[in-house]
């Protein structure tokens, strides 16, 4: 069992930056991949970024590649999402997710992830 709690919600102007954090608990070995998804109002939840157990491998959705950076601190069981050059279309509830199976070819699919956080709101004004 992995319990995930996101933090870092906020309102920021377009072009600004924000960093989200997600603290994981329940397992002490950090032996799982971590990822971020987002869901805008009226839209389906979509993949944003993912990182492997040891942090060596990362993946990003096209719209955020080059602007967002995912990282993890296994000593503190935390994953981060640094978001730069934010756009109004980045406005959404952001969810942290964990996959016991690890970082595999299907990591952009919702079904590949076993545990989810409660979500944190990010609003980007124009």
Mean pLDDT: 94
> How many beta strands in the DSSP annotation?
11
What count of helical segments does DSSP give? 0
Low-confidence stretches: none
The general outline is: globular
Structural class: mainly beta
Rg over alpha carbons: 13 Å
Q: Give the H and E element order.
A: EEEEEEEEEEE
Helix content: under 10%
Strand content: over 45%
Q: How would you describe the overall organization of this protein?
A:
- Strands 2, 4, 5, 6, 9, 10 and 11 form a 7-stranded mixed β-sheet that branches. A 4-stranded antiparallel β-sheet has the order 1-3-8-7, with no helix packed on it.
- Helix content is 0%, strand content 48%.
- By secondary structure, the chain is mainly β.
Topology at a glance:
Layout: E1 3-7, E2 10-13, E3 18-25, E4 33-39, E5 46-51, E6 58-60, E7 68-73, E8 78-83, E9 92-99, E10 115-116, E11 120-125
Parallel strand pairs: 2-11
Antiparallel strand pairs: 1-3, 3-8, 4-5, 4-9, 5-6, 7-8, 9-10, 9-11
In brief, what are we looking at here?
The chain has 126 residues and is mostly beta strands. It has no helices and 11 strands. Strand 7 (68-73) and strand 8 (78-83) form a beta hairpin.
Keywords for this entry:
126 residues; mainly beta; seven-stranded mixed sheet; four-stranded antiparallel sheet; 11 strands; 48% strand
